[in-house]
TrEMBL record:
One protein family per Pfam: RVT_1
Annotated region described as Disordered, given as residue ranges: 452-511
Polar residues bias (residue ranges): 501-511
UniProt feature, compositional bias: Basic and acidic residues: 484-496
Occurrences of domain Reverse transcriptase (ranges): 1-330
Highest taxon above the source species: Eukaryota
Name used for this protein in its record: Reverse transcriptase domain-containing protein
PROSITE patterns: RT_POL
Length: 511
């Protein structure tokens, strides 16, 4: 920790806290016979992976027919693009069989990412600069909150593809790149990269037989996520062609929210959802993909549930009342189930690190840093999308009080050792206000959802707390005044610092 080597620090923590589990040295072959010899196991893994990445795609050949484009083939790949791609790679990743670090061989990635950014729909937030899981969780929660409060039905289908990244049909991928008018040189370069590539299984310092791959994007390649986004965008574009969605907010229709393969199809009516599922199933099949009906889930804010028998490939997906979307619980009860889940997960992480907390050889400052990175980060994940109520605020404070030191003298010594710090509730409120300012100053989908309105009236009586209600509560300003304040960054920053401070808890002492 003194040298700020986070990689070694986390490995040390893992070694001290992980339960030792022996690696299974047996596996079954195709006929169910048990294999114990290491070479036999390696051959079985090689056989499995070879079959997986040589899966015969049974897509529709029609999707390969793309009209000729007017693209100029003479755009060269610039040296600056290669340098930018190399610099953008993460450091310290394991090299391949040639022992050459990926940082030395990757080229052209920056150009591909730039090109794909112009064709990927705004509903797709996965693997895109400036986008995050927090934003997509925020979008979905606010959309659900507004539809529920305006008494409008909202139907969801959370789609799961079977072996999504491993089933990308190469021929359809090149056709999709051509369809979106991506530079022909980039297409040929990427195609050559895949046509000449071979793979092998690495197990216990042994390498299995080499084999070629005909489907799937390469694991660990910086281009893979971009290529998958292009492939999925083509599927979604074809599926939603002429589809009139009824989910609307701020005058904008929203048919889906995506983060890579995490897809939430949205509909305002049950028959509309069935049509959306049929379109996605038909189009994905044409591109060699298959929806996993067992893992695909349906959810609705309609208290009567689903009345029709909606199926995918003859199978009926499960209907649920809450769903874990990118690590966050989405439910009609609002943010409370998600907050309680985060409290439980953080508490479990805290208990798991008991060996670290009890070790007197580890400095207190190091323990504090580990607490923030390994425990508090779990609790604070996507807290920007929470709607705080009096009940959830009490629960957050109660969670922090579990480690409260009752001895005043010890508590004062601890405060002097760790220096000034803010409590959890203050951190949550500060992050929420900073996020509000960030979205208000932006011009994307999140701003439309946050500030847009939904048709329909609210029910009589006391209304449920909305996330936007937290802003006036924290700042003492109206939403309009707070919105104008966000444009003046320095003033907004000062306001956030003053407004996010949580009420102090009273501490009983004995004299």
């Amino acid at each position: 920790m003194t040298k700020n080597n986070s990689k070694k620090t986390y490995q040390l923590v893992k070694d001290l806290t992980s339960t030792k589990q022996g690696r299974t040295k047996t596996m079954q072959d195709k006929d169910g016979r048990c294999l114990t010899d290491e070479q036999d196991i390696l051959k079985r893994w090689s056989e499995y992976c070879s079959e997986l990445y040589n899966y015969r795609a049974t897509g529709d050949p029609e999707v390969l027919n793309v009209p000729p484009t007017t693209d100029n083939d003479n755009y060269p790949i610039l040296r600056e693009e290669v340098e930018a791609a190399v610099k953008s790679l993460k450091k310290g990743k394991t090299a391949g069989a040639d022992n050459v670090p990926a940082e030395l061989v990757q080229a052209g990635g920056e150009a591909m990412i730039t090109a794909s950014g112009k064709i990927i729909a705004e509903e797709q937030a996965g693997f895109r600069p400036g986008r995050s899981t927090t934003e997509q969780i925020f979008n979905l929660r606010i959309l659900c909150e507004k539809y529920l409060q305006h008494q409008q039905d909202l139907y969801h289908v959370f789609i799961d593809f079977k072996k999504a990244f491993d089933r990308v049909w190469h021929a359809a991928l090149w056709a999709s790149m051509k369809h979106f008018n991506i530079n022909a040189i980039l297409i040929r370069m990427t195609q050559n990269l895949y046509d000449k590539a071979t793979s092998a299984v690495y197990l216990n310092n042994s390498i299995g037989d080499w084999f070629r791959t005909t489907v799937g994007v390469r694991e660990g390649c910086v281009l893979s996520h971009t290529l998958f986004n292009i492939f999925l965008e083509r599927i979604m574009t074809d599926a939603l062609n002429d589809h009139e969605g009824t989910v609307s907010i701020g005058g904008r229709n929203i048919t889906n929210l995506r983060f890579a393969t995490d897809i939430d199809g949205l509909a305002g009516r049950e028959e509309e959802l069935a049509d959306l599922m049929e379109r996605l199933n038909k189009t994905s099949t044409a591109f060699g993909m298959q929806i996993n009906a067992e893992k695909t889930k349906l959810m609705t804010s309609n208290t009567n549930g689903f009345s029709t028998d909606t199926r995918v490939n003859g199978e009926k997906p499960d209907c649920v009342n809450r769903f874990k979307y990118m690590g966050a619980i989405i439910a009609d009860e609002g943010s409370k189930p998600g907050i309680l889940t985060r409290i439980a997960q953080a508490t479990a992480a805290l208990a798991k690190l008991k060996t670290i907390w009890n070790d007197r050889n580890i400095a207190l400052s190091s323990k504090i840093r580990l607490m923030r990175s390994l425990v508090m980060s779990i609790f604070l994940y996507a807290c920007e999308a929470w709607t705080l109520t009096a009940d959830t605020e009490r629960r957050i404070q109660a969670m922090e009080m579990r480690g409260h030191i009752s001895n005043e003298e010890v508590r004062n010594r601890t405060r002097q050792a760790i220096g000034p710090h803010e409590d959890l509730l203050t951190t949550v409120k500060r992050r929420k206000l900073k996020w509000y300012g960030h979205i208000t100053r932006s011009s994307g989908l999140a701003k439309t959802i946050m500030q847009g309105t939904v048709q329909g009236g609210r029910r009589r009586g006391k209304q449920k707390k909305r996330r936007e209600d937290n802003v006036p509560e924290s700042t003492g300003m109206t939403l309009g005044a707070a919105m104008r304040k966000t444009e003046r960054r320095e003033e907004w920053r000062e306001l956030v610092a003053r407004s996010s401070v949580a009420p102090q808890r009273s501490t009983k002492t004995t004299g």
